[in-house]
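Record 1 of the preview.
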Amino acid sequence: MLGKLIRHEIKSTARIFLPLYAVLLVFALLNRYLNPLQVFDSSGTPNLESMLKGISISLYVILIIAVFVLTLVIVIQRFYKNLLGDEGYLMFTLPVKAWQHILSKFLTAVIWYFMTAASVVISVMILIGADKLFDFLPQLIQMIREAFGSSGPVVLPAFILSQMAAGTLMIYSSMALGHLFQKNRLMYSFAMYCALYAAYQIILAILILLLGNNLFESLLQSAAPTPAQLNSLFGMLAAVAVLMAVVHFVLINHILTRKLNLE
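->
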């Protein structure tokens, strides 16, 4: 049943995301032929062509930012509308557990996060050329290896995924908590997010003082952190984020199972 929920959620959101990605790629292709990276001519004097190129590349950057923002907005809107809004009456009549609803929303959100990132990377490849991007990749990989050692390909993805999970589920839990109030639920949801974020920072600071004091002392004392130090730091941050993600998931499941009020 979880698979069916995910497929349904992907189909429902693909109608929004796929045209958005298509616009981004078409705009990147247009900019490729306009060559906006050469904004000025050889004399360095601005002219109509250079102004158009400058406007074009500015709109492209704005579009990239808009794609990321819209991805987050749609992820939030889908959770709130489907599970906490009017559609919740229908969703919770299905023979599905609350945790399956939560997990389907979360996994679909992660899929679209990566699809958005991939569409942006492809658009950059179209704009500057795949050969230039592939020439840069070995340098980037080498920089990661020098900073993190052989553990970099494991530590960095784990850190990114953990932060993504904690951040998304924190938003979900803040909306679930805000929905416990009878009025001004959006305002309370925002207030709950601020409270949860502050609590997360406090917990993180306490854990750093208790568990990572020696680590941070060594980082401050060393001119350049060693791969072992960076792996320990990012590993600890990832572990804390995973712990908080689990707490948020349990909290959301409890509210949707026992405290949900759709009136």
